[in-house]
Amino acid sequence: xRWAIRVGAALAFLWAMYAVSPYIAAYRLATAVKARDxxxxxxxxxxxxxxxxxxxxxxxxYLSTTSDSGAPDTTARQxxxxxxxxxxxxxxxxxxxxxxIDLLDDGWPQMLVPERAPExxxxxxxxxxPENTPPVQPPTKVPQTGLGSPRLTWRDLFFxxxxxxxxxxxxxxxxxxxAASRVQLDFHFDPWTWRLYGIEIPDALARRLANDLRxxxxxxL
Length: 221
Prior knowledge:
This protein has 221 residues and is of the alpha+beta class. The chain has one domain. The chain is built from seven helices and four strands, in the order ααααααββββα. It has a four-stranded antiparallel beta sheet. The longest helix is centred in the first third of the chain and has 34 residues, at 2-35. The model is unreliable at 116-133 (pLDDT under 50).
């Protein structure tokens, strides 16, 4: 009987630890971002999976605003090769621990993308978005809570965490620019700890990076 009670108590303890582990993982990531601890951030990120999730977001926008349906097969192949070749270095810049910290602390990576966009948009290039497309402007900063904010509390983290089954949860960070800078982090249990597997970046940032990719490809072609 005592053996059964001890086993039951041990299982209850393990279940309680697992139940609170997503909140602990969110807190530890926030602590690493506040301290700008690159090594601690690297230990909590699956960079290959995050690279894939970011590339999908940026390439979807790039392809949706690039009109090349009538291009010859040779040009289409050149475009595909250039996209694959150039997107890699762009993702590497975005996925450096320093830039990730810069993104997560307030929802906008000023280190990679200036906080204020140029007043005059770049001249259109071949295969660029239509001329009537407005320039992408970063959002206006407002007092909100990001992972790097000293105002962040356990209560904030509790409401940011959204469990999805037993091996996945989302952490939605409002950022310092309101809804326009919301960042959603996708964590997986891998295998005995939670690691970041995906990032949904703000739409304005994704469009800025897609425009950057387009300019780089146009110069290469």
